[in-house]
Design a protein that fits this description.
Length: 154
């Protein structure tokens, strides 16, 4: 599912959520600039992968060589920061997921998290800009087919 994405023509970021039904786990994928970040639980900690390479928890905070993103331990989980690209924070732990965009992105995002503009009556907007009446149909509208995301084994 698309949690949040930059809905401007630049498409600076997209935050995806994949739920593993068998293990009842969430897997977060953040595509930002040319960087692909995966965050998912394994045993009792959050695994961090950048472009397919696992970053050990002991190596956090991690700063991408291009300086666009930083990943660090925060509270009980992991937080990704990329303010220059519109993402203030993507926080993930075993129970919580938080996506915060920078002020200048407000009203320019879409996905399950909405437009981030403070307006709450028109939150159930689908990818084709229609307004749905229920949370369930809204959530279903932001589901990507399995072919759109990498398989968990890749």
């Amino acid at each position: 599912q698309v949690l949040a994405q930059d809905c401007t023509p630049e498409l600076k970021f997209i935050v995806l959520l994949k739920t593993d039904q068998s293990q009842e786990q969430n897997h977060i994928n953040v595509k930002i600039a040319n960087i692909d970040v995966d965050l998912y639980p394994r045993d009792s900690e959050i695994v961090v992968k950048v472009n397919g390479v696992e970053i050990p928890t002991s190596n956090l905070p991690y700063q991408h060589p291009e300086g666009k993103i930083q990943i660090r331990q925060s509270e009980m989980g992991v937080a990704l920061h990329a303010p220059s690209l519109g993402l203030q924070e993507v926080y993930f732990d075993m129970n919580t997921l938080r996506v915060k965009v920078v002020d200048w992105m407000k009203g320019q995002t879409c996905g399950l998290c909405g437009k981030a503009d403070g307006e709450i009556r028109q939150e159930y907007r689908t990818p084709n800009k229609r307004l749905t009446k229920s949370a369930v149909s809204h959530a279903h509208s932001w589901v990507l087919s399995g072919k759109s995301c990498r398989d968990a084994t890749e």
